[in-house]
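Hey all, quick one. A colleague (J.T.) asked me to put the pyridoxal-5'-phosphate job into the tracker so the inputs and the structure tokens live in one place instead of scattered across chat threads. No bug as far as I know, just bookkeeping. Sequence used:
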Amino acid sequence: MTHADFHKEKMHDFYYKNGELYCEKVPLSKMIKKLGTPIYVYSYRTFTGHLAKLQKAFRSVRPLICYSVKANSNLAVLRTLVKKGAGLDIVSGGELFRAKKIHCQGKKIVYAGVGKTEEEIREAIKARILLFNVESIPELEQINAIAKKMRKRVNVSLRINPNVDPHTHDYITTGKSENKFGIDFESAKTIFVGSKRFSHAQVCGVHVHIGSQIETGDPFVEAFQKILEFIDELEVEEGIRIKYLNLGGGLGAIYSDENPQTADAFAKRILPLFKKRKCQLIFEPGRFIAANSGILLMKAIYVKKTAVKNFAIVDAGMNDFIRPAFYNAYHHLWPLKKRENAPQWVYDVVGPVCESGDFFAKDRELQEIKGGDYLAIMTTGAYGFSMASNYNSRRRACEVMVKGNTFKVIRKRETYQDLIRGEKASA
Ligand SMILES: *Cc1c(COP(=O)(O)O)cnc(C)c1O
């Protein structure tokens, strides 16, 4: 597929009209007037559109698409996607709590993570989730013991670490032997063969998730082929049938000039592998659905010129959006208002947090920025607000969902009182 083909697919609903930035039909200057900055703005249409693309591309195999909650866990986002037919992929008791809040059915929830606690396991059993994605033998023993105590039977998938390099950032690589995730093939086989000893945990699925922001089909194909060989071996040699095959997430989004596969291209590439397979396929997309469904609006407070740099200092910081600091991630910066014939200058766009890692762009050529101008960091719908913190005692931003010509605050901007909730001054 060529770059041009890719761009035929509409990527998101943020665009300029008469030099003004819009989300769907809302001019964002109007939102800023009402709410101030920083604001995370999400497009309902983009969110649901990406889910629909995946559903359509894979409709021939009717997969369960479990949106990965950690990418963007706002209740309104979860509810929107679940209403459109998604299930949820969770990684903690807190995410299970969110899933229950929006009434996601247990049978559409899968639960991964290397460190599930006793309490988290109990809650998940109570919620009758579809599958635990188990990452170690001690975890499986723990789940079995808890289920036994509760007199419940649970379904378990083994998360396999196929030792495949997804060619992405080290911090979001999860499918190589040195990563903490999953179980190697040999140990997994031993577990399957001896699985009768787990009286209350039915080991009936295989799970694989090799990393995030994977831009080509090759690492997926390599991992899935290994997994399928493993499944065939189990069936032929041991007579073990796999009921659920969870292929994880990891599909890339466009941040600058990447050219990741579309849902259709991905489906065309991998569906042939799964022809004539009877198991239920599961996907866990996070970034693919959420990343370009959101932007972060912020205001330039000062422009500081030094001998070597122009710093645009903005009112959002690394506590609001950590990807540049954490992964050295590139994100486009768009002005709220395009000025005709504005000069271009080179800027470091930095936040107010007391860390040199607190930047959104370095040496970036941008339309001239003046104090009081507004900017948008693009493609911040995934791993944006969900990774935000209160570092430097900064209140977390508000989140807003745009739907057509209306918008709604789906999380209020935090107050100073929120910052000290639960604290005591007397030691
Ligand atoms: C984070 C995660 C995902 C989602 O990854 P994306 O790259 O956002 O699609 C899916 N499955 C598991 C187990 C994860 O930990």
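Adding what we noticed when we looked at it: Residues 68, 70-71, 89, 91, 112, 209, 212, 248-251, 284-288 surround pyridoxal-5'-phosphate (CB under 6 Å). The two ends are 63 Å apart (CA to CA).
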